[in-house]
Specification:
two-stranded antiparallel sheet; flat; about 100 residues
């Protein structure tokens, strides 16, 4: 499998990237090098290798979602440029 310059240009167009001809050539070469390397990995004998999702034995370190003491509201709002009714006041982000 190989990536063509036309495919790189197509993906760039979808991503709205303006690539020069030199960049198209460069990315085509790099992507083909990556694919070639991935094909080399298929040559490995993995018959006795257990499938894994990560190379390190990581575990989730999430804590329980529980209410914990925090700074008082007045202290949190002390340096707010604008506040109203005990909340931060920020400029509108969406148009009405």
């Amino acid at each position: 499998m190989a990536i063509s310059k036309e495919q790189v240009q197509h993906v760039a167009q979808l991503a709205r990237l303006a690539l020069t001809e030199k960049e198209v050539e460069q990315f085509t070469t790099q992507l083909n090098d990556i694919l070639h390397f991935a094909e080399k990995l298929n040559e490995l004998n993995t018959e006795n290798v257990e499938p894994t999702s990560h190379v390190l034995p990581l575990a989730n370190v999430l804590r329980e979602d529980e209410v914990r003491p925090s700074i008082p509201r007045d202290k949190a709002l002390a340096n707010a440029p604008e506040k109203r009714d005990g909340m931060f006041r920020v400029p509108a982000v969406f148009e009405e």
